[in-house]
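Title: [Solved] Transport permease protein 3D structure

Original question kept below for reference.
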Amino acid sequence: MGREGITLAVGTETRLVAPGPVAALWRARELLALLVARDLKARYKRSVLGMLWTLLGPLLQMAVYTLVFSAIVRVRVPAYALYVLSGLLPWGLVSSATLASTWALLGNQHLIRKVAAPQAVYPLSLVGGKALDLVLSLAPLALVAWIEGRPPSPSWLFLPVAVALAVAFTAGLSLAAASLTVFFRDLRHLAEIGFQVWFYLTPVLYPPSFLAALDPRLRAVLAANPAAPLLRCFQAPIHEGRLPAAGEIAAAAAAAALSLGAGLAAFVRAEDRHLHWF
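Solution (posted by the thread starter after getting help):
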């Protein structure tokens, strides 16, 4: 269910062959775009500010975290507001899209039963919407950079690569979360708690050196944290005005490829069983 086939003629025999998952998603790209538009309209329906919340939300979070962690916790980082925002934006994509995707299949089961399309379009449409939020949020990010005395530099040209890596990483997590929640409904609540813990073990609000100074054992946690190199691909060009180190780019690319490959493979393998668990 949900997979379109292609017809091949072999001699006098006609066979129906299922396309690969990537080819099937490409053929369903128009549906994917419609779902992204639907999600955006539903999210901002009857909102006075509408999509301006895409820009204001990260700025308000940044203001709160900057006040708490610079004045109370006393994290000493130059241009701290810019540092926080450059980490919050990619983290927001990863966390919000993955958590929203836990309900992507269950919330669209009426469409899944009626529309012959790859089920992966439902979680991926949420990733697409959140990715658009991230891209739009680069405008207030540039404003904060100017205010902090670190205006956009040529290193910002690396950001499309950073966004692509973050989207690929998030897509893998979202596909896995959407599929697993069909079989284990409690995963949605566990994921919310897990992301809260993950957030504070990721260098979003403080640099890696700050965490390691609190407890040397956290060095191993940071080294194993796949989100850390992804965030560095944003923090280095935005906050530090330089390209990420080659090792950071390689680690981010490996995390993105592993997440996307594993998430897509697991989703496709379980796709035919989702309907029986709705």
